[in-house]
Amino acid sequence: MKKNQLCREVKSHLLDIVEQKTGNLPHKDSLLSHIKSCPRCLHLVQEFSKLWNQLESPPKLEPSSSFLNGIIQKIEDYEETKSLSRKVLTNLRPALKVVPAAALFLLGILFGSFLGNAPSEMKKDSSYEFVSEYFNKLEDIPSGSIADAYLYLDTGERRD
Amino acid sequence: MKSSSRSDYELIKKVTLKDLNAFEELVQRYKRMVINVCFRLTGNRENAEDVAQEVFFRVYQKARTFRGKSKLSTWIYRIAVNRSLNHNRKQGGLIQKRLTSADSETLNEVPAPHHNSPDTIFANKEDRQLINKALDSLPEKQRTAFILHHWEGLSYQEMAEILKSSLSAVESRIHRAKNSLKKVLLAELK
């Protein structure tokens, strides 16, 4: 294998070389002996290996001394809020019992108000229009006529 | 660390009954694991402790939902991973301000044993920045998988449970993550 080709092979199998998983590599022996003889490849393997080893060693952090207290404080606040809302709910329970009755009452008012608006709906009704037309025609009866006299007898009032 | 005789299952059962002593024991048992996974996933040491506290608070709140089908540590890991990733999303992606050697003195970060001479510290700081840059370039799922496997030392099976993925998906993410990291680091070395 030519030198350039071996350099390329080293680059492409760099991870296996650094992680020492070269068992299944083709031309394993020629690759490893090439690394020893080629300064460029040796430098690359060394530098990459240094970085990769750092990558394998994780950064570490120790919890502060107040870590546990911070959590306990959060829990206490949470339990306090929870017990407070439970208390409020308990106090509200008698009042909450009235809610269905109040809802029913409101529903009644709404229904009543709907029914109260019915005459305006009735205006659109044809029977209502017929009656109002009838009374309008009575207005047209000339005074002094027999019909007028009849109306006068009926209502006891004299029309002008 | 696990000096107490009480098992994880016994502890979490006590926690469901609001036993704060049991909860404190549980925190002592898992605090290092949780704070470190939060630190590694958020990449931000300032917020890692806050996120870790949220994780334990969640454990307290949701203890009742732990069915014991998986290990307690797996369940806690899942909460920690989800909280950390949510934190990252809320912050609009990974926080760029990363740990440096100088920061480690102020925030309880444990320095690696080879951090001795100033030259080494400087070189390691540069390398660490390079590594962080490479890690940040990974998609979220690949980055998470890489960190859980390489830094937390979790098995593929545990990771599949934590990430709610299949084994093959986990394997594939790690493989792709390693190849992407190799490419980025090689580009930096040129």
Considering the chains and any ligands shown, give keywords for the structure:
heterodimer; A: 160 residues; 76% helix; B: 190 residues
Distance between the termini of chain B: 44 Å
In what range is the share of β-strand residues of chain B?
Answer: under 5%
Greatest chain-chain contact: A-B, 29 and 45 residues
Number of helices of chain A: 8
Gross geometry of chain A: elongated
Shape of chain B: elongated
Helix content of chain A: over 70%
Multimer state = heterodimer
Task: Report mean pLDDT of chain B, rounded to a whole number.
Answer: 84
The number of strands of chain A is 1
Q: Count of helical segments of chain B?
A: 9
Helix content of chain B: over 70%
How would you characterize the largest beta sheet of chain A? none
Largest sheet of chain B: none
Overall SS class of chain B: mainly alpha
Radius of gyration of chain B: 18 Å
- What Rg of chain A is obtained from the alpha carbons, in whole angstroms? 51 Å
* Helix and strand element order of chain A: HHHHEHHHH
Number of strands of chain B: 1
Structure report:
With 160 residues, chain A is an all-alpha fold. Helix content of chain A is 76%, strand content 1%. Chain A has 8 helices and 1 strand; from the N terminus they run H-H-H-H-E-H-H-H-H. In chain A, helix 1 packs across helix 3 (28-37) and helix 3 (28-37) crosses helix 4 (39-56). The longest helix of chain A has 50 residues, at 67-116. Chain B has 190 residues and is an all-alpha fold. In chain B, helix 2 crosses helix 3 (45-62), helix 2 packs across helix 4 and helix 8 packs across helix 9 (167-189). The chains are: A mainly alpha (160), B mainly alpha (190). Chains A and B meet through helix 4, strand 1 and helix 5 of A and helix 2, helix 3, strand 1, helix 6 and helix 7 of B.
